[in-house]
Amino acid sequence: MIVRHIDNVKTVEWGNGLSRRFLVADDGVGYTVTDTLVRAGTKSRLEYRNHLEACYCIEGSGEVIEMDGTAHPLVPGTLYALDQHDAHFLVASPHEDMRLVCVFTPALRGDEAHSLDEYTSSAY
After folding, report:
1. Which secondary structure element, helix H or strand E, spans residue 101, and what is its range?
2. pTM
3. Using an 8 Å Cβ cutoff, are 88 and 47 in contact?
4. Which of 45, 51, 59, 64 has its CA 20 to 30 A from that of 98?
5. Contacts 24+ apart (CB under 8 A), 33-37
6. Is-contact 57 73, C-beta < 8 A?
7. Is the Cβ–Cβ distance between 9 and 93 less than 8 Å?
8. Omega prior to 106 cis, within 30 of 0
9. Per-residue tens of pLDDT for the chain, all 124 residues
């Protein structure tokens, strides 16, 4: 059994926030669970070429925007899944941080961080 508290997990500055990595590849379960903070007013162009990801919003607000411009509001209780390795923009509202619980498969190593650029998707 694996039991962890947020105070004792690896924390990564991923570009526009923090990712607390509760489970990583070395844990041997085949997926990663993170508690991710997205800083207020940030916009991140992201793509996961080697992982599928699902994110569940538990605090704050923002939106996930598909590359065709379709925007989906994110508020507590909303889940989005990147089931096609979808390139997207993740945007936190200007007035509050957003907090997401995210699951990646296959599992992350645990040290990945983004290289953010508005014209190219950061990918890992």
Report:
1. strand 98-105
2. 0.91
3. yes
4. 51
5. 33/101, 33/102, 33/103, 34/100, 34/101, 34/102, 34/103, 34/104, 34/108, 35/6, 35/99, 35/100, 35/101, 36/99, 36/100, 36/101, 36/102, 37/97, 37/98, 37/99
6. no
7. no
8. yes
9. 999 999 999 999 988 999 999 999 999 999 999 999 999 999 999 998 899 999 999 999 999 999 999 999 999 999 999 999 999 999 999 999 999 999 999 999 988 776 666 666 665 5
Both tokens of 67, joined, read: 């590359």
Distance CA 14, CA 90 (A): 13
Residue of 31, 62, 68 lying closest to 44 (CA atoms) = 62
Q: Which of 58, 105, 61 is nearest to 83 (CA)?
A: 105
